[in-house]
Write the structure tokens for this entry.
Amino acid sequence: MPRKKEVLEDQETEMLTLVAPEEAAESPDFPADPPEAHEEMPSESPEEDSGEPMDIPPGQDAIQPEDAPAGEQPTPTEEEPQDTPQAEKPDLPDEPAAESPAPIPRRRRTSAAASEQKAAASSASARRRGAGAAAPAPRVLAIDEESRVQSAEEKEAYLWMELRNSLRTKRPLAGILGGVERTSSGLPLAIVYYKDMRVVIPATEMNIRLEDHRESGDKELHNRYAQILSWMMGAEIEFTVSGLDRRSGSVVASRTDAMRRKQRQFFLTPGRDGRPLVQEGTVAEARVIAVSERVVRVEIFGVEFPIFAREVAWEWVDDCNDYYGIGDRVLVKILSIDRSDPGNIRLQASIRETVPNPAKENIKKCVVQGKYIGRVTDVNRNAIYVRLNVGVNTVALAVHDRRTPCRKDDVSFVVTRIDEEAGIAIGIITRIIKQYL
């Protein structure tokens, strides 16, 4: 009589034989029940990540899907919900236990890895797009890009608004002196153009001081006014509107009033430190209103004054017109201020003091007994001043040419002594190369 233990083992063998065909009839993708419901299903282990085959518990055969040949791993497919009902299939005959197809947990692991790779690629692409959005290409701004194009009517309305504002608040406006006319009595008029608007300023309101001509007749005084205005043509001047008529399109202004307001603001009104804004040593921008050979006349904050040639540049200057023109703006350094008469502030300033003196560096380009080409900048009874082409100021104490050198003549110069402390060379003019006619 068989023992009870042997009967139990035979029954377990029959149950396993019946279970194998039933599991083979299920979908090859996933089992109908969740993996947690099968106690015999192996858990995920490091061997799965390494790609090695999983260990199958003894007594349980692996299941081979219908559509995959034995010995090959099925292609991963998209994971379907586990609660999807599966169609019933007829029972299949028993398959040999010797076949060892890839287990179902391995196929699920492969599908999950593919999904993670796809998610990682999408995340990297999103990061690249985000980085590009965070650092866009720099925008290039064009000149007057923010300005709006105005029609002719809008420009005219805005222009008259500015003129009325200057009339009401006395705010200075700046225009170009573009003409000189005379009234029926002979008084000169300065014609200033402000944004194509014709503005008339009488000569008596141009802040021109003619103390030496006060006792002269009106005709001579008017001629002097007209001469000075002609020298100033092309200059940028400030004015305040004193009267206007839009119907006739006429505007009358005063330069004297605008300059007095500027003087009070910058030279007489104390600032936060208790002193006026402009002091000795201040570097400011000035307008060039007239130029001659030896003088540059400038205006700074309502004060006009001359700058002589020796203060125009560090080199010897033979003609100031070669350096500046009417309408230019230059930097000047204030050397002294006389505020004793608030109605007549006097200044002394220099243009060359705003830049370093290159004389000590340039003097190294000369050697004693060297011969160089230069240009005569000035002539007086005691010496002739020559500016060498190598950038050195020189003084000639003698001339070996039978002709007398004049200003702007090109000459040959021999250096006999160098004064490094003063930055000049002393020598002799040996020959006049080219005379200025």
Q: What stands out?
A: The CA atoms of residues 80 and 115 lie 13 Å apart. Residues 104-134 form the longest helix (31 residues).
